[in-house]
TrEMBL record:
The keyword NAD does not apply. Pfam families: Bac_transf, CoA_binding_3. This is Sugar transferase. Keywords: Membrane, Transferase, Transmembrane, Transmembrane helix. Residues 1-40 are annotated as: Disordered. It comes from the Bacteria. Residues 325-514 form the Bacterial sugar transferase domain. The chain crosses the membrane at residues 53-74, 94-112, 133-150, 156-175, 328-351.
């Protein structure tokens, strides 16, 4: 997990940067102080272009929503906002009021930095800022209308707010899909120069490579060894020199972001000196501590005596959070059973008629706080599947998977079972587990007792949450994931649970079920 610390400043003298650039004083490519402020490097223009695109689509969306709501509510007439008890305030046409509302809404989106490159393209912060700024704006309008006794049509406001938020979020989502495609091609990403010890640089490089959608493309690294001809192990990232060659490495690679993976190999003031050498507003400094899969509310930056301390809170699940999650699980699963009852009945008949054996498959799994429970699924395998398990599991262990049993083309699966598994239909009876309280809609994967017996101590943290019908493990690769990846995703979910995150996972699960890829098994 990275923590943005955008602390660029301008400086050019050798003494100011404290020896960061070890090149000779007559280096021909050195940029002067005035040149930096007036340079317009093309590498940073994508941020400006993308931000302008967001402004255009935000404005178009709000014009369509606000004036569309006005026409739907008042028609083509010249309705006016009236001041009920104050003759000093003249009536205001809704045509003008709508224009003011659009301008104020656009200002609120800008004021809260909803188009900042820190939130674009990944995570939920962009959407959260849209919702937050919109509700703050309409709350302010409501307060002003109440204090000044201005009579604004409630229906007009109550329709504009939710529709406007939905349209804004949808257009931003469309732009994000476009941005993801561009980043998969190596475009519209920050060019990163990694700095630190070789192990820490390697770890951060792997995390960036694992999630290219985040928009960080590593173009080089500076490590203590400084062997220019080397590459970072397991990657094709070139070593650009030692930690004192950062300025020259930035010029050669064209990087616009310096990511300090560890400061162990750096002098005490080196990070501050690096920030001084960067171009203000065009080059960025990122501190990437060796803490992965911890995000959101658990991270807090607190400046103390000039030190930007990152506080990492321990996972806490309040009674309110537990109650809220259980309420959502219960209501959603009951509604799901009612709505899906025709499909459940059809699948039960298909299983019963297509092969010998019971309709449901029951199996002991380990759940919340390590307690065992019986998980139910539609039977998708032959009746003697358990008898064949040991032989197949041995094949998996020989292939290097010591804990998590999985096989892409499992011979025990029936034809109807293969179809159900592809679209995750065999999991639907687990809705009854959710109603009974042994499972949740979203959570870690429910493991077998035999798997738990092989767990390392830290893996038991996954039992801090109820197991889920779906989870990060299912929407991030399913059968293609290694054991280490499955554990990492489960622990990440437990460590960083939010209700919004659950809704995002459910939406991704629905999309994966309707359009399963090669990872479905």
């Amino acid at each position: 997990m990275t923590s943005d610390l955008q602390v660029g400043a301008t400086s050019t003298s050798q003494s100011a940067v404290g020896g960061i650039d070890d090149a000779p004083a007559n280096e021909p490519n050195r940029t002067s102080f005035l040149d930096r402020d007036h340079a317009t490097p093309t590498r940073d223009r994508w941020r400006q272009r993308y931000r302008r695109n967001l402004i255009v689509t935000d404005l178009a969306s709000l014009i369509w929503v606000v004036y569309g709501t006005q026409l739907a509510w008042f028609g083509m007439g010249n309705a006016a906002v009236a001041a009920s008890h104050d003759s000093r305030i003249t009536d205001l046409s809704y045509w003008l009021f709508s224009a003011i509302l659009i301008v104020a809404w656009m200002w609120a989106l800008s004021f809260i930095d909803s188009r900042s490159d820190r939130v674009m393209g990944t995570g939920s912060q962009e959407y959260i800022r849209i919702v937050d700024s919109s509700f703050r704006l309409f709350g302010t309008i409501a307060i002003i209308a109440f204090l000044t006794q201005i009579d604004v049509a409630r229906g007009y406001l109550l329709i504009s707010l939710p529709v406007g938020v939905l349209v804004l979020v949808f257009t931003r989502w469309l732009w994000r899909q476009w941005l993801i495609v561009q980043r998969s091609r190596g475009k519209y990403s920050a060019s990163v120069l990694l700095v630190g010890s070789l192990p820490s640089v390697t770890q951060v490089a792997r995390e960036f490579a694992r999630n290219p959608n985040a928009g960080y493309r590593v173009v080089g690294a500076c490590v203590p060894s400084g062997k220019v001809a080397d590459t970072i192990p397991g990657t094709d990232i070139p070593v650009m020199g030692h930690v004192g060659d950062i300025a020259r490495a930035l010029q050669v690679t064209g990087a616009d972001t310096v990511a300090v993976a560890s400061a162990d190999e750096l002098p005490a003031d080196k990070v501050k000196q690096i920030s001084w050498s960067l171009e203000a507003g065009r080059q960025h400094l990122v501190l990437a501590p060796s803490i992965i899969d911890i995000a959101g509310p658990r991270l807090h930056t607190r400046p103390v005596a000039g030190l930007p301390l990152i506080h990492v809170e321990t996972p806490r699940f309040s009674r309110g959070q537990v109650f809220l999650k259980r309420t959502v699980d219960l209501v959603a699963s009951i509604v799901g059973v009612i709505v899906l009852s025709p499909l459940l009945a059809f699948l039960a008949m298909a299983v019963r008629l297509s092969s010998d054996g019971p309709v449901f498959f029951r199996q002991k799994r380990v759940g919340f706080r390590g307690r065992e429970f019986t998980m139910i699924k539609f039977r998708s395998m032959v009746v003697n599947a358990e008898d064949l398990l040991e032989q197949l599991a041995k094949q998996e262990r020989d292939a290097g998977n010591e804990v998590l049993f999985k096989m892409k083309n499992d011979p025990r699966v029936t034809p109807i079972g293969r179809i159900m598994r592809k679209f995750s239909l065999d999991e639907l009876p687990q809705l009854f587990n959710v109603i009974g309280g042994s499972m949740s809609l979203v959570g870690p994967r429910p493991p077998l007792p035999s798997e738990v017996a092989l767990y390392a101590d830290h893996v038991h943290r996954r039992f801090l949450a109820k197991p889920g019908i779906t989870g990060l493990w299912q929407v991030s690769g399913r059968s293609s994931l290694s054991w280490e990846e499955s554990v990492r995703l489960d622990l990440s979910y437990v460590e960083n649970w939010t209700l919004v995150g659950d809704f995002v996972i459910l939406a991704k699960t629905a999309r994966a079920a309707l359009a399963p890829g090669e990872t479905a098994a």
